[in-house]
Amino acid sequence: MTFSKKTRQDTVDALKTTDLDLLIVGGGITGAGVAIQAAASGLKTGLIEMQDFAEGTSSRSTKLVHGGIRYLKTFDVGVVSDTVKERAVVQGIAPHIPRPFPMLMPIYDEPGATFDLFSVKIAMNLYDELAGVTGSQYANYTVSKSEVLQREPDLKQDKLQGGGVYLDYVNNDARLVIENIKEAAELGGLIASHVKATGILHDDNGKAIGLQAQDLLNDEAFDIHAKLIINTTGPWVDQLRAEDDDLDHAPRLRPTKGVHLVIDEAKLKVPQPTYFDSGHDDGRMIFVVPREGKTYFGTTDTDFHGDYQHPTVDQADVDYLLFALNNRYPEAHVTLADIEASWVGLRPLIAANGSSDYNGGGANTGRVSDESFASLIQVVDDYNAKNATRRDVEQAISDLQTAHAEESLAPSQVSRGSSLTTEKDGMLTLAGGKITDYRKMAAGALALVRRLLQQQYGQEVKEVDSTKLQVSGGHFDPTNVDESIGFFSRIAQDAGIPAADALDLANRFGSNTGRVITYAEDGAAAGLSLKETASLRYSVNEEMTLTPVDYLLRRTNAILFHADQLAQLTEPVVAEMARLLDWDDAETAAQAAALHQAIDESALKSLK
Fold first, then answer.
1. Which of 98, 129, 158, 554 could form a disulfide with 174 if both were Cys (CB 3.0 to 4.6 A apart)?
2. Which residue ranges does the record assign to the FAD dependent oxidoreductase domain (predicted)?
3. Of 3.40.190.10, 2.60.200.40, 3.30.9.10, 3.40.50.1820, which CATH number belongs to 64-76+97-171?
4. What is the DSSP annotation of 205-264?
5. d(CA 2, CA 512)
6. Cα-Cα-Cα-Cα dihedral of 66, 69, 72, 77, to 10°?
7. Running DSSP on this structure, what letter comes out for residue 167?
8. For the segment 319-367, what is each residue's pLDDT rounded down to a tens digit?
9. What is the pTM of this model?
10. 299 preceded by cis ω (within 30°)?
């Protein structure tokens, strides 16, 4: 299958003329998850995205598929139970993307610390029980102060007590989106980027029956008709709802901004993802993660009221993160000048839900009262002695009383949960959530879609087991990832691609690697390696890559984690894309300018 600018017009034409069963608005991870399940169910499925796929929020996460152990600081066992189980499901359906990578949590004896050595062990044990990894190679364990410093000698030693190690997964968020999108298209979905919803169509009874849309590549306006419409636009959920004058326009979301910064590992090297209190006494925690010879750290969490399509990093964001990093690594002396790249995204948080989000509760909430905590510990002790059941533990957690409460919530306290609602006109709104539980959110939406189609149209829709619905590139045994990736790597090596490059391709494209290397048969493009040539040509022809920014930022992470190589990559990538997409000189120059602007913005050139 090809999925490219050359096929895009046929897709747009089909969207104009097909009476869809389901029209999805928004091509981030939530919309992508709905699309693959809908298409696999045999529904006539359409999806439109006003930008590139994952351009909004879903390429701007902390790039982890994690279980949210920080929820256990407020003992939100329900959220942790959902996410740790779902984390393993995502690894099964996209085995070439999330990879297990144990997390280190150094514990400090400081005022306001999220965990001490006692509570972190309880939290990790409960976390492992919920995840089902107790007794496996990924079971948690504690380490002494000296062992923590053996792993990370640059960590602050003062008041360091020891640490905990527990399972989490590293992730490539943008690639998870595009692999879901590609599989949905392969299954027959009509999927188009750079198409914007500009209005909602209604029948005489006021029921939503489609959308007014605009093709942003040629400004053509057209209508799309569908039995059901689902709004999966992330931070833009309220903006799409505002297009309908008959709906209640009370905000569903409270978007917050999250910033991450990237430095070279020569400046600060960490052997594994590390997670600690921010040091700002604000109840937040900070990740520091190694990746591809770099170290990145984040995230901030502040309310956002600016341009949703173009949030930016400001000096306050940098100051916050540099303080947190240098406080924990006092000999690192990281400054603004050391930052090679950055990214910023908006979290589509549910405004009405006050539970702790995945980045931790606020400084004055989540403090469990002494009485409630003692009661919980007693139940846990009884459970360990086999005198209580897991249900007893969960009930004790549910009964916890906090010692403090706030009438207004800090940004970091707004829930990362999701909501699925049916609007007055029948449009569905799937809001909130996070990458880790995207598959489960989509499954819930499809259950409602099946019910509505049966009730309203007498249409029976088959149910698919989405826990086994593998994405593009993920069609191999998830219990033998290393062996499979090795096999795909050897295929690339046999095509003349050096071993290290072949392994990179295999990790990026999984079971599609054989298809990717067919694009190397005509030799390397000028200025590009054979690996980069095959990757770029495949992405343009089969991943709807329309711009150099699409490729270097989202199809690959070159702008984020290979800033030192961009000087050699930019001109050859632009030139090869100009050839593939038939750009004239003016278009080529415009695309080159947009690429350099994106690179400068990521590198924080304006702040420097």
1. 554
2. 21-353
3. 3.30.9.10
4. TS-EEEEEEEETTTTEEEEEEEEEEEE--GGGHHHHHTT-TTS-----B--EEEEEEEEE
5. 13
6. 40
7. -
8. 999 999 999 999 999 999 999 999 999 887 777 653 333 333 333 334 4
9. 0.89
10. yes
